[in-house]
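Practice problem: predict the structure.
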Amino acid sequence: MKLSWKQGLGVWAATTSCLLLAVWLRYYLTDNGFIKEPNQTYDYIVVGAGTSGCVLAAKLAASNSKVLVIEAGGEPPWYSWIPIVAPILQGSEQYDWRFRTVPQKFAAGALHGNQAFWPQGKMVGGSGQMNFLIHATGSPSDYDSWKVPGWDSHTMKTALDGLTCWTKGIVKPFVARPSFLLDGESEMCRAPVLAEIENSTSCSENAQHFQCPSAAVKLQRVNATEKPLLKAFLDAGRACGHSVSEMDRWSDTGSFMASHNTIDGKAGQRWSTYSSHLMPAMKRYSNLHVLTKSSVTKLVWRRNKVIGIQYLDADGRIKHVKAGKEILLSAGTIKTTQILQQSGIGPPHVLEPLDIPIKADLPVGENLQDHLQVPLFVELNASVSLNIVKMLHPRQFWNYMVHGKGALATSGIEGIATLTKKREDGKPSEPYGMLILFNMGSINADVYTSVANIKKEAFHRWFPKSSSLSQEGFVLISICLHPRSRGHIRIISPDPMHPPEIDPAYLSNDYDIQCSIDTIKQGVELLNTDSFRALGARVHWPTFPECGSKQGIENQRYLECLVRTAALTMYHPAGTATMGHKDDPDAVVDPELRVRGVNGLRVVDASVLPRLPSGPPNSVLVAMAERAADFIINKH
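Answer:
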């Protein structure tokens, strides 16, 4: 059967629509908590129903407080729960804010106008409803580098242990907090003993039972015995002298591991804090209201205290709601920054030209950072990868509907590696790079170029066999974990609906170039091992004209040009409302996430991160939101 891309995707979409009607029914046959008109006053108003906002709302509602969650988007579409379809929501006018950066001076050569598209979720669940589902906890040095009281590695380990069903050294029962569950584990389980992290056991293998919390952060662990491509990746890492672990290490030592993805393994559906936290809380607590399709435009003041919000409802009418205790901004790095600046919290050089009265002179919008990825296509001659022809096989749909398994129940992310270097004293450095094994041989030109703003000509030089629906191969993604380039987000109009100026200043610091090159070299080295040679692995070096005719790992000039041309966002903007100690001039919020010099206002999202963690931050944000809720409840 030979299908064009459009025909193939049409068949896939039509079949999926019919077979996955149950998903739609499960998530849409209830309205508990959704409202058309809010009350005049609540105890707390949570702005944004993303990863952090859903956690905050659920915990505060459980404390018998009156809580309003206000979200600019609506409910997520039914197909957002299918893990493999994450990219489809990117670029959607209904579900994505569709932000874009200003033209980049040192990067984005393969993109139209040198501008990166920055997808950000505009729906209940936020970006956690459209991300690639990678679970990572970072490394101890990430948190120690913040130098923020109460957020060191010891404290964060405790917070992250509270999210996981893994413990180390001693047996302890579950407490009433979210937990990570591995694919196939029983909802009734005990905390495991991990005398050695390499010999970890899962909670389903222990006899003493405790009820796992309903808000468990569920993980699907990719099984190397069933995934030959992942097995080759792990074997190659071991052959190159790297350690291989079965689970996420709490260590600065790099390792190769099977990916743990935030997927409910029983149902084969996306896990997000909407499904685990907000949705159950909406059914349980009548004191929790969720208002959708309503965009917060600015904060309402009484002297130096924030007492409410101004917003535009679904019909474009200006309305107000008051909070008796606190406003919690969890709108995501870009929207949180915009709301703060529109409300008079920010640098004078940004606010004064727009005639916005300054309420608090703070460096809101500075310190913007993001992870960059450099994807390379690796061709295979063995039938071990996922592609469109395999995805369209009727067996895949049956397996998904009946068992919650198969290609549709995966994100395509199979392997993760964190990389370190040896210092002069022989000890490893903090992790500097990450490799991601994305098992996908068929890379659709229309989809990929539209969501990432890639020039078609550049794409075909990058992925020359993209037109084949049965292509075997995978994408090897290289990431510099701790970029030193810093940019900004600034409003450029007093109109709150006007998009802000976003300039990440990608690759403006030369360290980021060499860090990316070193990571690429480590990845390509894997392909020279026996495990990948057995699969016929061959990396395709993009033939960008501006990078010269001599491609390959030995050409430093080519590699630098490759990074400046092909590096793409990893969708992790952070740092624009950074937290710090009371004497830190760069801090916007204090260690309890209260905006400095302002009463009644906190920020709880990725904008408070002083520096990005070693990996995708979604799970870290869950832990941060849990802690923030405890701060708030303990105060009031």
